[in-house]
Structure formats: C-alpha cells, structure tokens
Amino acid sequence: MKSPKTTVRKLQVSLIVFLVTTFFIITLMPACSEKGPKNTEQQISDILGKMTLEEKVGQMAQITLDVIGKGDTAYTSYEPFELDTAKLRKAICDYKIGSVLNTSNNKAIGVTLWNKIVSEIQDYAINKTRMKIPVIYGIDAIHGNHYTAEATVFPQQIGLAATWNPELVRETARITAYETRASNISWNFAPVLDLGADPRFPRQFEGFGEDPYLCTILGVAMIEGYEGNDVSDKERVAACAKHYLGYAVPYSGKDRTPAVIPENYLREYHLPAFKAAVKAGVHTFMVNSGIINGIPVHSNSYIITDILKKELGFNGIVITDWNDIDNLYRRDKIAKDEKEAIKIAINAGIDMSMIPYKYESFCKNLTELVKEGEISENRIDDAVRRILRVKIALGLFNRPDTFVKDYPDFGSKKFASVALDAASESITLLKNKNGILPLKGNIKILVTGPNANSMRTLNGGWSYSWQGEKVELFTQKFNTFFEAIQDKFGMSNVTFVPGVSYIMDGKYFEEKEDKYSEAINKARSSDVIILCLGENSYTEKPGDLNDLSLSDLQLKLALDLAKAGKPVILVLNEGRPRTFSKIESYMSAVIQTYLPGDFGGDALAAVLKGDVNPSGRLPYTYPAYPNSTVVYYHKPSEEQTPIEGVYKYESDYNLQYTFGFGLSYTTFTYSNLSLSKSDLIYENDSLKVSVEVKNSGTLAGKEVVQLYTSDIIASVTPDSKRLRKFKKIFLNPGETKKIEFTLKPEDVAFVNTQNKLVAEPGAFTVTIANQQKEFRLNKN
Is 708 exposed, middle or buried (0-12, 13-18, 19+ CB in 10 A)? Predict the structure, then answer.
C-alpha cells in the first residue's frame, strides 16, 4: 500500500507537468496555427532545402506502371500484375521518381489489387528513401474510375454536357473521386475542358461540347465534385484541367495536328474554361499535345508561363501529356535530341514530365542541363515546389494510402442509380414524327444495327482500356440496347438481327454485312424497327477519320430497312455527330444517346417506353453535311442566303439540328420576357432578365431555359449569338415558373484585336426561345 505522502508528491509532480505543458502549448499555439498556406510554404521550403538536385529532378518525373511491373519488357507485364521489387527500387530509390500513372497492360485492375499496388509503391517512397516524399499516383478516370474493374461508369463528358445539369455533373464527379480514392489513387486527369468546336476531332466526346460558357459552367462543377472544399479529404482527388490550350480545333480535324488560332480567338473561346478552373482552385493542368501557330504548346512559354502561371496565377502542377517532351524532337523537329527537348519544355514552364518509359535518360539529361547552366535551379525549385504543394494539399504526407474497406459505398446501387439518371438525362430526342414515341401497345420490335448489342459502343474509348476494346471483359452484368429493350418490352416481342457488324480487330471502323438479308426480311414482319447506328469505340489518333458521314454500309442498311414500310427509330450511339442527311427524312424518330456508359441500354429502353421523358439538349451543332462544320456562334458571313437562279450556292451553315436543341414528350410555352431596365451602365451595373415557362403538355418534364445575346454592332465582327445563361427546370403539366437571370457588362464582352476583354457600348438583343428583347450598354 502506497503512503499518503507518496501519493501527494506524485499529484504535485503531475500538476507541475500539466501546468508547464499547458504553458508551452498556449505559448506556441499561435506559431503553429498561423495561416495554413504560410505554414505549407514553409514546409515546402524546409523540404526543398534538404533535397539534392537528383532528388528534385526525380520529383519531376512520372512513369507508367508497367515500367515497375514483372514482365518481359517495360511495355507489358505479367498477369496478374505484380510489382518487380528490383525495378521498383531502381525507380523510386535510385532515381527518386515522384509520380506513377496508368493501369497495367492497358486493362482495368480490381480494386483490391489497386490498393496493394499503390501501398507497395508508397512504402518504398516513404520508408526506403532519404527524403520520405510520398508518390502521387495519377489515372485517367474521365467518366467514372473506369480503370478500376468494379467502379461505377458514367456517360462520357459529351453526354454529361447534354444533360445541361451542373448539379448532376458535380455528383458524378464526386462519386468518381470517392471510388478513385477507394482505389488508393489521389490524382485524376480530368476534366477535359477543350472546346469541342470541330466535330471531326476524335476526342470531342471527352469534352463538354462547342460552347465556351457551357464548358465553363460544367467544367467548374466537375472540378468541385472531384476536389470538394478540401482536397485532402479522403473522398476527394486532385483534378487536372486538360488539355491546355486550344487542343480540339486542329485545322485538319485530326488529333495532334497543327491549329491556327489568333490570340484573341484563343482568349475569347478557349481560355475561359481554364481561367475558371484556376479560379475554382484546380490543382493541376495538362498541356495540349498539339501545335498552335507553328509552336508546339509544350514549348510555348507564353501560353504556359506568361498566361497560365503569371497572368492567371496558377500555382499547381503543369504536367505534359504522354511522352510529349520527346515529341518536340521526334515529331515536331524543334529540338535536335531529347536533351534539347527537355531544356525547351522545362524552361517553357513544364513541371512534371509524363515520360512514361525511359525515365533514366530524362533524369540524367535534366540533371546535366542544370549543372551546365542551361536550366536554372530556380526553375527546378519552382517546379518541385508546385509538386510538393499538391502532395501536401492532398494530405499524402499524413495519409499516403487509402483502402477500399473504408469506402462502404464503393460500387454501390446508390452510385449506379446516379449513373442511370445521368444516362437517362443525357438522351436527346431529335425527331419524333407524329408522336411515334413513346412506343405504345403490345408491338413487335426489330432491334438492328452495329451498335444494337455492344457494351463497347455504349462506353467508347477510355473505358476499361485506352481504346475501349476490352469493355466486354468487364460488363457482362449490364445491358446492351437490345438486352434492355427486350427486358422492357418482353422477350417474345423483341428480336435482334445485326444486319451490319463492326470488325472488332484491326481498324475499328471497318464493318461487314452480318445477317443483312435476315434483318431486311424481319423488318417486314415487325411493327417498328429500332436501328442503332454510330461508331465503334476509339480515342486519339485511332479515331481520326476522312469522312464525317456515317459509313456507306450503315446508310445502306437504313435505306433498305425503310423500304419495308415500317416506322424506323434511329438511335445514334457515337462520340461525335456523324452526318446522316441522306437517310434523315426516312426516319420516324431520331434519338442521340452519345456514349452513355454501362447504363445506357437501360436508359434508352426507359425513354422508348415513356418511363423517362427525355430532357437532353445538344451540346454542339449537328451538321447536315461533312463540309458544314460551323458552330452556332458563327459569324454572319457564314450564314448567307443563297441567290436564286443560275448562281444558287450552298450555304456554309447547313445544320441538321442546332446547338441546344432537344425535344420532349411534353410541350413548353414561353411568355412575358422582360428586362428590369433598357440601359446597362458599363461600370458595376446589372439588369434582370425574366421569362415565364409553362408546361403546356400532359406529361411532367424537364426543360432547359437558354438565354442568348447578340451584339448588333461591334468593332470586331460579332458572333451571331452567344449562350450567356441557362437553367434546367422541372414542371408538372400545367405548371408555370418565372425564371430570372442577371446580366452584367462582362457577360456581353468580347476579346478585341488588342487581346483585351471589352464590352463596347451599343445595342444588344436578348433571346430566350421565341421571346426577344433589346437593351443598350452605355458608358455612363
């Protein structure tokens, strides 16, 4: 038994320790809790001050996963994937590599294996290197984390754009971030903010369409979904705004070929979404792989450093695209060798190189360039500071790993329902002759066409593999168009005959007749034909094409089916608007599904049945002819009225369907457009625009209220009109809502020939549906 004196003495000692500890905590707390950013920058400076040049250079290198996997070469790994400890030690410990990306063998990996792979990489980085800097792992999760086999897959961005629903876009991104972190990956190379103003471009489906404002609003929503209010949250990831800048409008229409873009156009149309991304706090940028005005963007210090870093104030990571520093000498011929290419790119402002294979020469050459004075160590320090800033922001120093066991909603039915909603809301009804849709009664349906029974075509490229060719390995539990229609309308009522099929190996666009005569014969005994046409999966260079028209074989199938005398419902399943004017008049209905993802089949069936009232709206102008690829905000000279008689010519602006167009199973009536005043003062002023929208039909539905302005006279030829505001609303039958928007002078500004954003005094027209009003902008 302890004596009372001993107990009292121990209590006294404890009290003294408590008082001393409390004193130091109170005294030191202000120094530890002062403004977070300052502490972060001090932490970065402390780390930088201890790093060798070789350690800094290693942080600027990003390698692909196969380089450190067991296998015969750096390009392929054994199955199932397993890290090669010798290769891993060489990359992480010897060369101090700071980042890894991509999946293995161009194929999705199971979530448990992802957890193991990234944890083992982090173990080497943190426990077997001197500086203990965690690796940042990156992946292309552009429509759900499709490189994790069990994750939720959403429509491609072009389909999300067709929803015109920022809240829904934000939610799909939030879920993607959650499931990416569940895979132990913290960096997502998305969103794509390229302005998709050329339908020939093979990556148009990866972006939000042709309009700068729509792209900006949805891009910010996606960034907010990925990053949230605190990117260190274990359910968030660092987003990547790509591909900066002007990537999607090469004058050939083909990937990674030159573009000619005057700077005022670059700033007017292409920069706004990226500028908004910086303002939204996006942590990383990926650079355009192409060439603008003769200069490869990866070498363009004006675009990367002067505009992005200095003018816009971006302080995160600027990363190359795949192997693009090498392209400066191999493809673009502006450098004599790899070493000179590295010098040009790093001096232009590149912070991290997606190498992805031969990292040894990159690290060796970059180190030599600094020692030789060709690249300043200050430039290296700036790059590494940016990389460390993102790693700290993600919380990787405190929590380098995340595990699927902590993510109970991963791959859940709750997430699947959001994917289905997104696919359903993206579907755009373009034609509905005599109200044939929704389909009614107990009818016999023929489902045909190359896209009718394929999960690959529903998803497109960047789906379980780069080109989407491995989709079928992972999607057995989901429904194709045919399977979903059969489920919805009854097995005995629905028949599938392909008619035309894609050749799945080799060239993705080659097709063959597949039970062609059987399809034509079956059409005669059917009540309605659902014809599913479009494209096979592709992205990047493999998606380049010479003719924007749907293939001859698909058009022939459509015409031959129409001869059966039965209604033909054309279902388009494509990454860009392939022209079909030769068959359009023979179609009773036209539905655009874009690339709707794993739940696209169920979404289409619900629309056909009438369980879902379609509310998608086109995020691009649908051209009628391959040579009529003109955007809706074209210049007046691009829409000339043909002269009758011998000199009659074809207009430049020949469209099948206009931007923002889409039908519903109900009708909406607009009235009482009003402006709060007729004059808008140049400085710090605004006006209210209101309009009443009524559901004048018999079904509940969603409508996208779109506000456009037109500048009547300007010092630079004005656009025909520009989208300035929009709002998606839900209305019950007979219900009316008053919708209000606010316009400010900057909303009607443009970039002049001096590359300045200006709002010039004069008259402007406001248009909402069939309603129109005019106001004036005055300087005082």
Answer: buried
Q: Are residues 668 and 703 in contact, defined by beta-carbon separation less than 8 angstroms? A: yes
pLDDT band for position 38 (cuts 50, 70, 90) = low
Q: Are 88 and 68 in contact (CB under 8 A)?
A: yes
Question: Average pLDDT of 191-213?
Answer: 98
Q: Which of 8-17, 40-49, 90-99, 345-354 has the lowest mean pLDDT?
A: 8-17
Q: How many helices (H) and strands (E) does the chain have?
A: 22, 30
Q: Strand 187-188 to strand 136-139: parallel, antiparallel, or no bridges (unpaired)?
A: parallel
Model confidence at 319, pLDDT cuts 50, 70, 90, reads very high
Tell me the average pLDDT across 43-61.
Answer: 98
Q: Coil, strand or helix: which one is 20?
A: helix
Alpha carbon distance 383, 448 (integer Å)? 54
Q: Which DSSP string do the residues of 362-428 spell out, in sequence order?
A: HHHHHHHHHHTTSS-HHHHHHHHHHHHHHHHHTTTTT-----GGG-TTTT-HHHHHHHHHHHHHH-E
- Find the catalytic residue in 321, 421, 602, 747: 321
Q: Residue 81: helix, strand or coil by DSSP?
A: coil
Question: Rounded to the nearest 10 degrees, how much is the dihedral formed by the CA atoms of 318, 323, 327, 329?
Answer: 100
Distance from C-alpha of 276 to C-alpha of 217, rounded to nearest angstrom: 8
List strands edge to edge, sheet with 771-778.
Answer: 679-681, 771-778, 762-768, 701-711, 722-731
> Given a cut of 90, is residue 34 above it in pLDDT?
no
> How many angstroms separate the first and last alpha carbons of the chain?
91
pLDDT range class, residue 242, cuts 50, 70, 90: very high
Predicted confidence (pLDDT) at residue 16 exceeds the cutoff of 70? no
Using pLDDT thresholds of 50, 70 and 90, give the confidence band for residue 325: very high
Please give the structure tokens belonging to residue 85. 């400890």
Using alpha carbons only, what angle is made at residue 533 by residues 532 and 536, rounded to the nearest 5 degrees? Answer: 115
Residues 6+ apart with CB under 8 A from 326: 338, 341
For residues 14 and 780, give the distance between their C-alpha atoms in angstroms, rounded to a whole number.
73
Q: How many CA atoms are closer than 13 Å to the CA of 460, on its beta-carbon side?
A: 30
- pLDDT confidence of residue 164: 99
| DSSP character at residue 64 | E
Cα 601 versus chain centre, distance: 22
% of the chain with per-residue pLDDT over 70: 94
pLDDT, the chain, mean: 94
Location of structure tokens 């700290």: 392
Tell the burial category of 251 from Cβ atoms under 10 Å away from its Cβ (0-12, 13-18, 19+). exposed
Backbone angles phi, psi at 712, to 5 degrees: -70, -50
Beta carbons within 10 angstroms of residue 470's beta carbon: 18
Mean pLDDT confidence for 417-442: 98
From 265, 247, 267, 266, select the one nearest 257 (Cα to Cα). 247
* Cα–Cα distance measured from residue 597 to residue 188, given in angstroms and rounded to the nearest whole number: 19
Summarize pLDDT for 461-502 with one digit per residue, the tens.
999 999 999 999 999 999 999 999 999 999 999 999 999 999
| Contact predicate 718/725, CB 8 Å | no
Residue 176 parent element (H or E): helix 166-182
- More confident call, 306 vs 25: 306
| Residue 248 near residue 197 (C-beta atoms within 8 A) | yes
pLDDT at 37: 52
Burial of 1 (C-beta count, 10 Å sphere; 0-12/13-18/19+): exposed
Q: What is the pLDDT of residue 31?
A: 29
* Domains of the chain in sequence order: 130-406 (3.20.20.300), 427-623 (3.40.50.1700), 666-778 (2.60.40.10)
For residue 22, what pLDDT is reported? 38
Query: Annotated catalytic, 198?
Result: no
